[in-house]
């Protein structure tokens, strides 16, 4: 009973603090939205990183990173990460070295205020539309050509199961192969503890660990290599997550 009360009060505190700090930063974010690509995203992520460095410790959820040495200067990567919680996207976006973009639901682009943030930090896609899915691939490739990493969650949606990972979709691996860029597996710990699935307006403080693993080259690979690459990355991330938990 007391735990539930605390969780709801803590969640309310976190939401209110998020709203207040976002409103303070909204004007610079709005100004950045008029910058040409990729500077709109670079500025957004840069200020967002400062924002989260202040906000996350204030809610008792500091982010600890490991494996930053795997990012070579000037190299673009497809970064794949497990997905357990609503807070994964802001955590991973600001924790990935240098500017990056991820896929976001097209519906997020219709929410006032949030639409400005999602259009700079994400590529909007309507997964029910084949045309929208194809366009999102074009936009991801364009972003990579501008020097931005692409950060994707190959499980597709949040993992609400008892398993460490859900099975992966092909998209991230097809993108890395098509563009012949290295793929970096990454593993996010503890966000499921902070915002458990199935609970509304409930959260508890806990530190977050975000680990980047060794890059996997895709030079010379073709789409025929996709299943093996996907299985390899799944096994690496699965074993690392289980060992870390």
Structural class: alpha/beta
Order of helix and strand elements from N to C terminus: HHEEHEHEHEHEHEH
- CA(first)-CA(last) distance: 27 Å
Strand % is 5-15%
C-alpha Rg, in Å?
A: 18 Å
- For CATH, the homologous superfamily is named as Glycerol-3-phosphate (1)-acyltransferase
Give the class-level CATH name.
Answer: Alpha Beta
Number of strands: 7
Low-confidence stretches: none
Number of helical stretches of at least 4 residues: 8
Give the CA-based shape: globular
Domains, number: 1
- State the helicity in percent bands: 40-55%
Give average pLDDT, whole number.
Answer: 95
CATH architecture assignment name: 3-Layer(aba) Sandwich
Biggest β-sheet: count, sense, barrel?
Answer: 7 strands, mixed
Strand neighbour order, sheet with most strands: 1-7-6-2-5-3-4
Under CATH, the topology is which?
A: Glycerol-3-phosphate (1)-acyltransferase
């Amino acid at each position: 009973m007391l735990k539930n009360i605390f969780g709801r009060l803590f969640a309310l505190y976190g939401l209110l603090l998020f709203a207040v700090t976002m409103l303070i930063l909204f004007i610079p974010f709005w100004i950045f939205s008029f910058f040409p690509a990729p500077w709109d995203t670079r500025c957004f992520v840069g200020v967002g990183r400062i924002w989260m460095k202040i906000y996350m410790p204030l809610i008792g959820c500091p982010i600890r990173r490991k494996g930053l040495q795997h990012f070579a200067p000037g190299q673009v990567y497809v970064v794949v990460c497990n997905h357990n919680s609503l807070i994964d996207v802001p955590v991973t976006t600001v924790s990935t070295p240098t500017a990056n973009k991820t896929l976001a639901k097209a519906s997020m682009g219709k929410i006032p205020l949030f639409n400005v943030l999602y259009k700079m930090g994400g590529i909007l896609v309507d997964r029910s539309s084949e045309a929208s899915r194809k366009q999102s691939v074009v936009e991801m490739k364009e972003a990579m050509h501008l020097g931005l990493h692409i950060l994707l969650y190959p499980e597709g949606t949040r993992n609400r199961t008892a398993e460490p990972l859900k099975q992966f979709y092909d998209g991230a691996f097809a993108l890395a192969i098509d563009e012949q860029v290295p793929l970096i597996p990454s593993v996010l710990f503890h966000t499921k503890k902070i915002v458990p699935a199935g609970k509304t307006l409930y959260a508890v403080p806990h530190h977050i660990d975000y680990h980047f693993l060794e890059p996997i080259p895709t030079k010379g690979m073709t789409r025929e290599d996709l299943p093996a690459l996907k299985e390899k990355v799944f096994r690496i991330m699965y074993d690392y997550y289980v060992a870390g938990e």
